[in-house]
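[job 0417] fold request received: Ethanolamine utilization microcompartment protein EutL
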Amino acid sequence: MAIRDEIRATVLATRVIASVDDAMMKQFNLKKEQRCIGMITADSDDVTYVALDEATKAAQVDVVYARSFYAGAAHSSGLLSGEVIGIIAGPGPADVIAGLQRAQEVIENEACFYSANEEGSIAYFAHLVSATGGYLSKEGGMKRGDSMAYLIAPPLEAMFGMDAALKAASVQVATFFSPPSETNYGGGFLTGSQAACRAACEAFEEAVLAVARNPIDI
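[job 0417] inference complete; emitting structure tokens
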């Protein structure tokens, strides 16, 4: 593996429930028109959150549950558990299936982590969301359609990178993930113009790579 190589995620399991039980509707605070849900697990949480957001732009669905698992995919509780579960809801199977298909496409072919070293043991996520959908806009306290820099890395690299990103572009902190997260990473959502968010992603990446090149550099 080379520096900046893509680290692709994998969808592990999906299921659609065409008409969810009333007790389950109550647990997930579903609206009466949200009779159908779709579930997905994958081995990368941040990639999946971007994918779920894309699902809300591709179909008439909402993200009703999304949660990372503790310690990450390497310590998964089961073969198909991975690092995250996401649940979308909509009025019927057609919308939910379309949402899941779009999410799978993003996970497998679009958003991804990158390697900061040749061993692939340091990974980072510096992803430009050109226009947020229903999920990430809510999570970041932004307006739907805002641009966002989604920045994630191991603890020290993330904090060093967040500072670099904020100094490099006219962006604001929408959400800050102080380390450790459930998967022992850190980072945040930065918002601003699309050009500013792209510059923030680039600055974050360069900062993470600098740490990886020379970790002990006071």
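[job 0417] notes: The longest helix spans residues 194-213. The chain has a mean pLDDT of 96.
[job 0417] exit 0
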